[in-house]
Design a protein that fits this description.
single chain; mainly alpha; Serine Threonine Protein Phosphatase 5, Tetratricopeptide repeat; two-stranded antiparallel sheet; disordered C terminus
């Protein structure tokens, strides 16, 4: 049918901002149709609505065979849409490991961030917990603290395996970011706020649990405010150790707050 339409003068390349046949066929994973359109001279880099190219929609869908064809015909591997999203960012966000590998083989920029909110391929993969994609990106030179912090994104969403991987590669565990109009939120603060116990357990092995965050409060304050008792139990001893070391006047206040709970196992044993 497509061949017949082309023989009767069907337009291969729709006007700008319209969806071209190549984009539709690519998204639908019609390999034979895509090959036919390319052989007949379809513009492999034509963009449609919101500046989206055939390679970009294929990367979102994870259609590796179609993407291979497009790249062989000269698709721009680093073409970004109107939101600054590249094919590699799109594939990383949705966890398409084979697509990520293919794009990197064709020299996709592993550290290219989008223009809307400065998020990198590693950032979106970390945010969505795609550990296999994170591993591939790191093996291909992704920078740990490029754009919005990948570690922060993984901690916020409780992705333990990704957090562990990023920490093993030297991610800055105390890096504060600007979020919700406040500067100073750390990975530990956001993990404590969300109640991600295992993430908090990983972070306190390497970070300063007593660091002030978010208007002068600590991570344990954030956890207590949000009702995450398990996180409070995990963090409370670190606060007590600091107060004991400093002989702080806040020690009595702290002990009274936690004496009637099981939050702090050391409070009843230290005088």
């Amino acid at each position: 049918m497509v061949s017949l339409l082309l023989e009767h003068g069907a337009d291969l390349n729709r006007p700008p901002k319209a969806v071209a046949p190549l984009q539709l066929a690519s998204y639908a994973n019609r390999v034979r149709v895509v090959r036919l359109l390319l052989e007949r001279g379809a513009n492999v880099n034509q963009t449609g609505a919101e500046g989206i190219s055939a390679l970009n929609v294929t990367s979102v869908a994870g259609h590796v065979d179609v993407a291979t064809l497009l790249l062989e015909y000269g698709a721009n591997v680093n073409e970004r849409d109107e939101y600054g999203v590249s094919p590699l960012i799109a594939a990383s966000k949705d966890g398409h490991v084979r697509m990520v590998r293919l794009l990197l083989e064709y020299q996709a920029d592993v550290n290219q961030t989008n223009t809307r909110d400065d998020v990198s391929p590693l950032g979106v993969a970390s945010q969505n917990g795609h550990a296999a994609v994170v591993k591939v990106l790191l093996e291909n030179g992704a920078r740990i603290d490029n754009g919005k912090s990948p570690l922060y994104a993984a901690c916020e969403n409780g992705h333990v395996s990704v957090v562990r991987m990023l920490l093993s590669r030297g991610a800055n565990v105390d890096l504060p970011i600007y979020t919700h109009g406040i500067y100073g939120a750390t990975p530990l603060a956001v993990a404590s706020s969300a109640g991600h116990v295992e993430v908090v357990r990983l972070l306190i092995q390497t970070c300063d649990a007593n660091r002030l965050v978010l208007d002068g409060v600590t991570a344990v304050d954030v956890a207590r405010e949000h009702g995450h008792a398990a996180v409070v139990r995990l963090l409370a001893p670190t606060i007590l150790d600091k107060l004991l070391a400093q002989r702080s006047d806040d020690l009595l206040v702290f002990r009274e707050e936690y004496r009637t709970t099981k939050n702090c196992p050391r409070c009843s044993r230290r005088g």
